[in-house]
TrEMBL record:
GO molecular function annotations of the record: lipid-linked peptidoglycan transporter activity
Taxonomic source organism: Desulfosporosinus orientis (strain ATCC 19365 / DSM 765 / NCIMB 8382 / VKM B-1628 / Singapore I) (Desulfotomaculum orientis)
Primary gene name: amj
Topology in the lipid bilayer: Multi-pass membrane protein
Stated name of the protein: Lipid II flippase Amj
Keyword Ubl conjugation listed: no
Family to which the UniProt record says this protein belongs: Belongs to the Amj family.
Amino acid sequence: MLSNPGELFLLTFIIHIIDTFAYSVRLSFIKSRQFALSTTLFNLFYLISLIAHTLQAPLIGGLMDHSLSQSLDPLPVIRQVLLVATLGTLCGIFLTPTFLKIFSNAVKELEVKASVPSIVIDALRWHSIRSFMGIITLPTKAMVHHLPYRKIPLNLLLLNVLVTGIYTIGVMSAYYATLLVDPQHRLAASASAGVLNTAANIIFMLFIDPKSSIITDQALRGSRPHADVKALVVILMSSKLIGTLMGQVLLIPIAKGIARLYM
């Protein structure tokens, strides 16, 4: 196996904790009513996630190359990576109240300073890091109890589970498929990761994001209660967590499905 898979684990953790935070930003939109500033600030987190994605794929490819050269099975490490994805999502869920406090303060600072680099530099100062420990807030039962979950369509939850499952294992299934095909088809099999991720993004953009945006916009206009958005965020986060677990189930079947295309 890789002599040090720690980098792959760290990047996967970063990706999934930021993806989990992304759901909660809807609550910040409603509370602050500063959609543009909130979006601008969160783009910084999205950039970090994008860089992690960019670095993750070559590391997974390196894992496969190492496995081929040493005649080893990379599946145990891949399973561990998927477990890290689940842990990153779970950590993101538990840190969401803390993230929202920090994010709300950062949006206010951005309005005053009008500079993202200034916000970043200030966040890295010792007094900011020390004050972070004082605002850590873990979720409580009261935060999620009695929310109107029945108002959120069930198909939204099911589709997000499917999308997250595919998204979580897209690259890994495609690269694992390279071990199941003849050498002349390995490059084509690895490129299938783009097809899987694109399919997941299409489902998200056509069926999940529009409905989620409608619920958020209606709450922003005051035509539906804020609690509906809270219920939406809880359901999206929960379905993402389930989706990362489903990735463990989908990993091999999807890899074998890709391999059959090139046999």
